UniProtKB/TrEMBL annotation:
It comes from Chryseobacterium kimseyorum. Keywords: Hydrolase. GO terms for molecular function: hydrolase activity. Gene3D superfamilies: alpha/beta hydrolase (3.40.50.1820). The lineage of its organism: Bacteria, Pseudomonadati, Bacteroidota, Flavobacteriia, Flavobacteriales. This is Alpha/beta hydrolase.
Length: 213
């Protein structure tokens, strides 16, 4: 069976490269695409869904923003199992900062020029402050198209979704992007920051073997 995987905002497969998946399954990474001008989230999800082969059963796995994406994909093309890591199951689990962005609509009015390479580098350095033992932070943040980044931040702040109780959620107890206090995850990674798939990969790999039987 195939496991379709979507990584985090601006991230490619590198943040998940140390994970060991069950050998009996084929892992297929769905890369982020650059949104078309003024493209709606629904239309974008539809384009991402085109990469999923529904002629046979499959699983979905998403990390961070990818966790939001796979839940949207599941609504179009239902999977046997949906697993999200470092992500949320509904808009009710948003952090205060993200909810503030939703209410004030600040992300919509941020200039695209703010999402340049210098800002991206600053962001990765800031993330490294919270994950000092992970020297590869800047390598994870590879999709740096300014329009994509601004569009993604807007979509996260606006996201509305009813929780699906069948979604399996894995969270780190030190995640400041999606604080664990707002959720009731199925699995908790002790000492895990938002980058726990990279820093706690052995523990996460064990869980994935248990989940994707």
């Amino acid at each position: 069976m195939k496991i379709y995987v979507v990584s985090g905002l601006g991230a490619d497969f590198k943040v998940l490269e140390k994970l060991k998946f069950p050998e009996q399954h084929e892992v297929v990474f769905i890369d982020w695409m650059i949104p078309n001008l003024n493209e709606s989230f629904a239309d974008y999800v539809g384009r991402m869904a085109e990469k999923i082969d529904t002629s046979e059963p499959f699983y979905l796995l998403g990390y961070s923003f990818g966790g939001i994406m796979v839940q949207e994909l599941n609504a179009l093309k239902p999977a046997e199992k949906v697993v999200i890591m470092g992500s949320i199951k509904s808009d009710k689990e948003k952090s205060r900062l993200i909810k503030m962005g939703e209410v004030t609509r600040i992300p919509k009015y941020l200039p695209i020029r703010l999402f340049n390479d210098q800002t991206s580098v600053f962001y990765t350095r800031l993330r490294k402050f919270f994950d000092p033992k992970n020297p590869k932070v800047i390598e994870y943040f590879q999709v740096r198209d300014p329009y994509y980044l601004k569009w993604s931040v807007e979509r996260i702040s606006e996201w509305k979704f009813e929780e699906n109780p069948n979604v399996i959620q894995i969270l780190g107890d030190r995640d400041i992007v999606f604080p664990i206090k707002n959720s009731k995850p199925n699995y908790i990674i002790k000492g895990g920051t938002h980058l726990f798939p990279a820093t706690k990969y052995k523990e996460v790999s064990t869980l994935l073997h248990e989940i994707f039987i």
